[in-house]
Amino acid sequence: MSKNKIDSRRKQAVAKWEELRNNPVPFIYIGAGSCGLAAGAAETQTAVEDYLERKGIEARIIQVGCIGPCYLEPLMDVQMPGQARISYANVMAKDVARILQAFFDDGEITKDHLAGHFGDGELDGIPRFFDMPMLKPQVRIVLRNCGIIDPDDIDHYLARDGYKGFEKCLSMTWMDVLDTVKRSGIRGRGGAGFPTWRKWETCRNTASDQRYLICNADEGDPGAFMNRSLIEGDPHSVLEGMLIAAYTIGASQGYVYIRAEYPLAIKRLKTAIAQMRELGLLGNSILGSDFNFDLKIKEGAGAFVCGEETALIASIEGKRGMARTRPPFPAVAGLHGKPTIINNVETLGTLANILRNGAEWYAGFGTETSKGTKTFSLVGKVRRTGLIEVPLGIKLREVIFDIGGGTQKPFKAVQSGGPSGGCLSEEFLDLPIDYEHLAEAGAIMGSGGLIVVDSDTCIVDLAKYFMSFTQKESCGKCVPCRVGTRHMVEILEKICDGKAELSDLDKLEKLAYTVKNGSLCGLGSTAPNPALSTLKYFRSEFISHVKDKRCPAVTCKNLVIYRVIPGKCTGCQRCVKVCPTGAISGPRSEPHNLDQSKCIKCRSCYEICRFDAIAGDAIVIES
Amino acid sequence: MANGGLSAIMQEFKGERGDLIPILQRAQDLDGYLCPAAIRDISRWLKVSENEIYGVATFYAQFRFHPPGQHHIKVCLGTACHVKGGEQILVMAKQRLGVDTGETTADGKYDLDRVACLGCCALAPVVAFDDKIHSQMSVLKIQRLLDEQEQD
Predict the structure, then answer these.
(1) What is the ipTM of this complex?
(2) Would you call B4 an interface residue with chain A, using a CB distance cutoff of 8 Å?
(3) B80 CA to chain A: closest CA distance, Å?
(4) Which of A228, A295, A397, B102 lies at 20 to 30 Å from A597 by C-alpha?
């Protein structure tokens, strides 16, 4: 397929995009990423369709991906002809008619649920969407299209300079592309932060008749969803990056290894790949060049360890996903023994931007050793949760408090890097987020999960949570990882149950180093990090559990007791309703009775009780 | 000889070793689980021993070896869901359905599972009921969800 075809298609696409900006009929955008849908976007869309039909209004509904502030989902934007796109937050089905009525009947912009507008400058006192506190400090490079374009429409991507980076790449030699990527300073965004160009160079310089490129979309880190959002919101950006990477390393076959838990992302990828094929962006002689490349999707089958390169390769080969010794590194001998490059979704999603705007432009963001931007999923106890993209070097405080809006109860810790990462305390809030500083502090950058916890979260319980996760996900090959993680979980359980002695803390630490040093792959060698970092920065909380048999966050079940305070209980029965074991009883309007023998300490009653707000709740937990 | 559905699936593949996991995934889509007959047919066709297929299939969390219930309830216990109280929702679901995770209710209506992460962490805690993800769940909301099901 010739280059002319994509040129003429892009012209059409630009015209179509212009029409979007100067719309003849009203447009209604629905944020329909997985989080939007979970919040009720599908019901919101049905309500919009019903309203339009009932009123006989001609308008177009466009589904877009996740724009980032998930806490505002479902998002619905209204764009009247010739006007700016105006965004409304937390629009449930029941809110739709009221908002649309203001536009269509009264010709007004209602302030109810208003989030911001997408135009330039001032608009009737409405703030710009991107000026919101959560969005203003962000630099959106990878996420530039997410939530803006229809991910199922390749024309939207083309109109926003899509595939121009790849076209530029085709006009260069592979060495020049490699050099550009080298000068940009981008490092692998999957976690370890290995310079992308170096891996590529090794692969290209290994003589072989066949090389493979794999996009690692096996985002198994619990609490992280950056890759899912990017693929759902802008699949072509990742696929364009794959073309660039494949061209540079000389690969003719590529795979996207993606979690089966992400059905929407898989659907979007399939659509996008079919569109590429139609435009001649896959297959032989791509855009009239002598570059051949084809792509396949491989669905993961639910194993966290398959995010590790050699385990991932074993899984594609149809085997148990178990890691093997390195060297040889996959760049030398990977899939079917051939040189293979495995790049993370975000790394690939960045490449087209680097090619289009130049290495120096990209290197202008970030720090001396950690260039560019990084996406994070900011979740947990922060007020504003969602997907963000920030320049590296930004301080944790800015991310958690300026972007995330801080926590409701006092901030306790932030976990960076998921089960492989570390838990950092308040004293690290001014730490710049880059590969070196995070590693020095005992955490890692990881793929970008940032989980914020407050004073209600028990740090020992959190360490136990991560250890049981890695213990379950250990592939079982190395004894220190298979057996060591189990013992670590057992010690942590003992601590949480108030049955541990001080010597157990030393045992835990010693075991942690054994697992760390004695495991083959990244899973085992990083699994003890959450335990080690919490032991280091929150030792006093461990000591309380061991010595005083007290859980300061009142979380650990065996160390807490739930009581009804008769003087405060109004007998409203709300706690009776939520108690799963029927431990709470009593007639209406009389103080309830909590049967300790039936209580499983699930915390439900404590959280539902809202009486006597001034002096505290009627149900108390004591430790 | 493989049953109709399974042989149609096999037609789509070349019969290479690397096809094993995708074929198992498709076979599970067909029957809802991997039945011994399907494993035997796949084994003969791919020329990979049944032992080895079980070895691969049991390694991955996705594969089931028992007939599933009508509805799948997956309580997410990813990190964000864990710190936001996903555990309580699981306790409630277990209590209500009278099963442990990985089990099916006696009437064959519900499967209960805990999953590591559904990727909707910003709206934690979440529960997936079949293909629909319910966000910002609570002990009350899971009860309401099950009540609604019972009424249908």
Answers:
(1) 0.94
(2) no
(3) 5
(4) B102
